[in-house]
Amino acid sequence: MNLTYGVITVVGVLVAISLALIIADPDGAPESRAMVIPENKIAQIEKDLNQLSVNPSLLPSITNVGDALILEVEFRDDGGNVVDHVNYDIFATQNSNSILSDPASHRHPGKYPIHESSALDASLIQIQVVVQGLGHGDDIFGPKGIETTFTITPMVSAQTTTETVIKTADNSGTSMDCQADLDCYTPSIVTVSVGDVVTMLNSDSAAAMHSFTAGTVDGFTPSPSGTFDTGIMSADDSFEWIPESAGEIPYYCMLHTWMQGTIIVE
Q1: pLDDT, tens digit, for every residue of 179-191?
Q2: Considering the domain 3-152 in this protein, what is its CATH number?
Q3: Where along the chain do its domains lie?
Q4: pTM across the whole model
Q5: Residue 118's closest CA among 70, 60, 58?
Q6: Are 212 and 193 contacting, i.e. CB atoms less than 8 angstroms apart?
Q7: What's the sign of the alpha-carbon dihedral 176, 178, 181, 183?
Q8: According to the model, what pLDDT value does residue 62 have?
Q9: Which fold has domain 163-265?
């Protein structure tokens, strides 16, 4: 049995006994009398509880950026023994904003509260645990108002980087036929994620020079956006670009403006 649980139980039993009267059998004793309890017994137990150390520690299970912080609070005394029946408040902030507020929490054997915050960003998390005594209801003893602060740094979960290859179509620089079928670049429309690698390859078998230039074309008049530009690429030249933000990015060939494509970044 847990030390704290046992002490609290003893307090309850002693209080109950102190209020009870032992009535003797009328035929066997001349009068009733109350059981005598040492006056300092309950006071000593309460004193022991008030002096009991209650040290909180956090058991977080998820601290990834973009996820919620999920944690449990465990309490131990100075001897390393688990302390239960602990009443406590727990709060957490990030960037001075409240992401968790669970006052009046209670850790009971077999019933350990699981606390969950709102979604995390990459900044530090400040967590405050305030012990508010041991016991239940009106019978609360032990340390009260003891504050402990923790700091947690969220982790950035590993992301899998994928590569997308966009090629120039054969004979795309000598004929505008590919414009009608939207396959001057293959594929002409691709969807990628932020952080992915986009490889642009001049694979035209006619050995024509090409470019991948972000921007739009009005008739034959190009308007580069500056998002990326491979410059003039000879046969088999390649260029890598990594998108840093979401959006829809049109592009074209500065030598053959009928060659147009779109990269959608999510």
Answers
A1: 888 899 999 999 9
A2: 2.60.40.10
A3: 3-152, 163-265
A4: 0.48
A5: 70
A6: no
A7: negative
A8: 73
A9: Immunoglobulin-like (2.60.40)
